[in-house]
Design goal:
The protein has 126 residues and is an alpha/beta fold. The chain has one domain: Rossmann fold (3-Layer(aba) Sandwich). Helices cover 46% and strands 15% of the residues. A five-stranded parallel beta sheet has the order 3-2-1-4-5, with helices on both faces. α3 packs antiparallel against α4 and α5 packs across α6. The radius of gyration is 14 Å and the shape is globular. 31% of the residues are buried.
Amino acid sequence: MKLLLDTNIIIQAAGDLLSIEAEKYISDERNELYYSSASIWEIAIKRGLNRRDFDIDPHILHKALTENGYIQLPITAEHTLLTGTLPQIHKDPFDRILVAQSMAEGISLLTTDKRIAGYPAPVILV
């Protein structure tokens, strides 16, 4: 199964803070693991704002994800256009682009955010 990890899942994985359920999905070698360039962007911005919950170096994280076989999913115009058609369930633009990427690419979005699960997208809530 193809899985797009949301930003919080990526941060939890980097800090060895994953739930048992999330760990099952990530450690299953049959799954292809994707991360969005939007997640790296979000971490860079929020770290620059000194958000304590984003205290991870985006350069090191990006390198570690790549070296560990995660597949980068770039943001395309199709993804950005799709965000405009989404219902206003969630106001966070980073979460909205992840939902749009999930929908456009047919990749399940692995998340801990209950609001994201309300979208008509392939979402796995852990």
